[in-house]
Amino acid sequence: MSEPHIRAQVLVVDDERDHAQAMADALRKPGHVCTIVHSLAAARDELLHGHFDVIITDLVMESEVAGLEVLALARAEQPHAETIMVTAHGDIPTAKKALQGGAYDFIEKPVDLVVLRNLVHRAAETVMLRGQNEALKGVAESAFGFEGIIGESPAMRQVITMIRQLAPSTLPVLVTGESGTGKELVASAIHKLSKRASRRFVTFNAAGQAESLLEDQLFGHVRGAFTGADKDREGVFEYADRGTVFLDEIGDMPLAMQPKLLRVLETGDIVRLGANETKRVDVRLVSATNRDLKKLASEGAFREDLYFRLKGAEIHIPPLRDRREDVPLLVQHAIGKYAADLGRTRPSITQPALMRLVAYDWPGNVREVFQLMHRMTVMVQGDTIDVRDIPDEIRAGDDTGETHTQTRAGLAGVGLDKLEKEAIRQTLAMTAGNRELTANMLGIGERTLSRKVKEYGLR
User: Which DSSP string do the residues of 11-37 spell out, in sequence order?
Assistant: First the structure.
């Protein structure tokens, strides 16, 4: 495994001074920062007051269990760090006991310095990955604070702003966007933030239903209205009186039904099937569609007057491929949700796997993210999701698609400075501006990142 870009803070604990110095010198060559101490008391002081990513300790020093005491201290005072035990051949059973107590690994004397460097590199990589996952988890949890809507991209912040503005009003709202983008969540948020929050929120899908059945479900019927109508039944609008109705797939509503819906919007009056008298209802309507209603209206496939009534205000939810910076938040939240559902430890996800998921176009949008992460959380072996755990069609990048072909072609001839600027911009967006995490993901120092941000005029 290559070693660039990982500079760990390492504590070396060994009462043999020359041996400690040799290990530290070997680790300083690839860039690790080493602190050397020669006793349990000195190790305790460093662990109480310092900050380390990796601790290397001899197992036997002033006592046969001194190394185990260092391990216990490290677990208590530096729980994020990994500890490597150095042991003589005869102490291997004790070293194995240390692994059960939380040590990362052990290495036998005489220490092979190349093996030691590789072991420290892997331990430091584990610490860095865990830190990145915890940081993203924190971002995801903070983003998951607005009525279940996850997203920190500018587009989603605009959606949330519009929800807050529109919720207190009585304006009908049309929510547009591709399937799977979360239109029902937006409708639910509007209801929960409105003055009708204590009343019913009723969801109804207008697609794929016969006209007579649709009318009965929306407006109800009286006894004897048709064969089998043995009692009065209220429809969706009566049931939701003084609440909110969410009509999904409104673009698929039959033309013959549209004037009756328009009447409800204009007057608040409904007529049950088989009845003569009208009933007045007070309902806030939120509708949604993945179709272009304006185009349908111009083609005569949708009533223009109804379109304008539905569109008191419009909230458009962009597809996930246009707000890729929200993907890590969704992925982390979904992993946590399904791990909790399964009663298992939350698995982490490697950076290459996360980047592969960010690069994918997500034709099924947010719904597809949750479906995939449910599957991967169930199927993953071990406690880390890696690229190998991603289904072939996503891992391969679906390279036959026109979008990816155009993207690759679009990189030809682009200057390295522009590529670097775009990489920094997208990673900052992905981490919601977390510079420490951004620097780790890009494999550069925070000072370098700050200089580049200023140089490229990024925010």
Answer: EEE-S-HHHHHHHHHHHHTTT-EEEEE
